Amino acid sequence: MSYKVLIVEDLQELLEAMSDFYREKGAGLWEVVTASDGKDALAKVAGNDFDLMILDIMLPGASGFDICKAARSKGDCPIIFVTALGSENIILKGYETGCDDYVVKPFSLKQLYAKSLGLLKRAKKNQDSDLLSCGSISLNKRTMLVKVNDREVSINAKEYFLLVYLLENKNSVLTRRAILERVWKDDLDVTDRVVDTAIRRLRDNLGEAAGQIKTVIGRGYRLTEE
Amino acid sequence: MSYKVLIVEDLQELLEAMSDFYREKGAGLWEVVTASDGKDALAKVAGNDFDLMILDIMLPGASGFDICKAARSKGDCPIIFVTALGSENIILKGYETGCDDYVVKPFSLKQLYAKSLGLLKRAKKNQDSDLLSCGSISLNKRTMLVKVNDREVSINAKEYFLLVYLLENKNSVLTRRAILERVWKDDLDVTDRVVDTAIRRLRDNLGEAAGQIKTVIGRGYRLTEE
DNA sequence: TTCTTCGTGTCACACTCGTGTCACATCGGT
DNA sequence: ACCGATGTGACACGAGTGTGACACGAAGAA
């Protein structure tokens, strides 16, 4: 398994130094794609799925920010900015655009490489850290945070586990019995109707996304994209 | 405050030029230690704590790589290699050994000096990277000091490690089990409720920032920005 | 040693808040 | 219109948590 990295830098020597470093260091870990001007970079961003991008900010054709934006509208791969010494406000702008880290020229390849590995690790962790989502609802099983349209909502324990079950089986009809067995587990000496109540409270807390939980009369409940 | 730099170079004139430059340029910023052969250098590395090292690779006695390795086994101060023209593969070897940057002979003292400052700045920033913070709470993992609104607060060992865990996972809900496994580690034959007590004592000691530790009923605790 | 102090785990009690249940309203299909 | 199924409001119980007190052991001082 190899990671696809895009390196954009107009200084030819530096570009070569970087791509050589990545090619040799990982011994096959990296698949390196390079670009030396903005236009070329934008084309390559559009035509590929990268695991990591290293972008110089000052470029002929388009700035690193433009490339960053293009990449962000497509996915959320980690991005490292390369910038000249002492441009703190530019770095700030970079973070606003959505970059994940930056290095200041002159920088050491080793440091850049270390940052790359760190970001990849973090991205990987986020990926399989069980991000569940459906329509405007998103739930992170690691942080246990629930969001509706990127606004954080707070729900109780039972509602939380119910929502996890719904999300893991979105679009499927879940019977009350199935929900009871999964969410209530041992406490099975309860009425079927507790599910109704839990669903109600969950709907209340989900606010505008309440409609995504559909009632299927005679069978149970179902979470839909809308 | 001054930085301690080790300059290793066998060419006497160059060694003097460099050390003079550092002594004069910084006007007291630098404390310069020199060595002109490998053995001397190794001894000085062993007996001092440097903030920066500038190592020639070709040396009588021991190579710059050996000195680099010795330094790395001791700490992680920034290292710049000085090398002869056209030895790119040697430079790669340098990066493997763990150097942070390099200059190629003939080089300008000014350029070397700029790299030195850059590395120092970066090293300093890395030190700060064991600075954890969230809202009005900040914690330094190196000095183990905890501050609330820049006012120093004293907390006990258990509370400290608990706070570190909370800070490293801020905004995430941490279950009692997870907290126990991380903070109590081996002593797992304790009640879940010790976490509650630890949280209480931590809240007491955090004073005005106590509210940043939120209780998530049925699931655990969570540190928020406010 | 003996006394003191401090950190920490445990228990008891108070209280909040989540949750199950019921009653009634409403809905939906036949 | 009928009846079963589901939505909704209210309420009471109890699980989960905050808090004070105490016990035990480690570390340090006399």
Q: What is the number of strand segments of chain A?
A: 12
Quaternary structure classification: homodimer
SS-derived structural category of chain A: alpha/beta
H/I helix tally of chain A: 8
Biggest sheet strand line-up of chain A: 2-1-3-4-5
Distance between the termini of chain A: 37 Å
* Helical content class of chain A: 40-55%
Quick one: CATH class of the largest domain in chain A?
Answer: Alpha Beta
The CATH topology annotation of the largest domain in chain A reads as Rossmann fold
Order of helices and strands of chain A: EHEHEHEHEHEEEEHEHHEE
Strand content of chain A: 15-25%
Q: Could you give a short account of the major beta sheet of chain A?
A: 5 strands, parallel
- Provide the gyration radius of chain A in Å: 23 Å
Query: Looking at this structure, what is the CATH superfamily of the largest domain in chain A?
Result: Response regulator
Most extensive interface between two protein chains, with residue counts: A-B, 19 and 19 residues
Global outline of chain A: elongated
- CATH architectural type of the largest domain in chain A: 3-Layer(aba) Sandwich
- Extract low-pLDDT stretches of chain A: none
* Average predicted confidence as pLDDT of chain A: 83
Total domain units of chain A: 2
Commentary on this structure:
The structure is a homodimer of 226-residue chains. With 226 residues, chain A is of the alpha/beta class. In chain A, 43% of the residues lie in helices and 23% in strands. Chain A is built from eight helices and twelve strands. Chain A has helices at 12-25, 38-47, 64-72, 88-97, 109-127, 157-168, 176-184, 193-206; strands spanning 3-8, 30-35, 52-56, 79-83, 101-104, 131-134, 137-140, 145-148, 151-153, 173-175, 213-216, 220-223. Chain A is elongated. The model of chain A has no long low-confidence stretch (mean pLDDT 83). The interface between A and B is medium-sized, with 19 and 19 residues. Chain A binds a DNA duplex (30 and 30 nucleotides) through residues 156-158, 190-191, 193-194, 196-201, 215, 217-218.
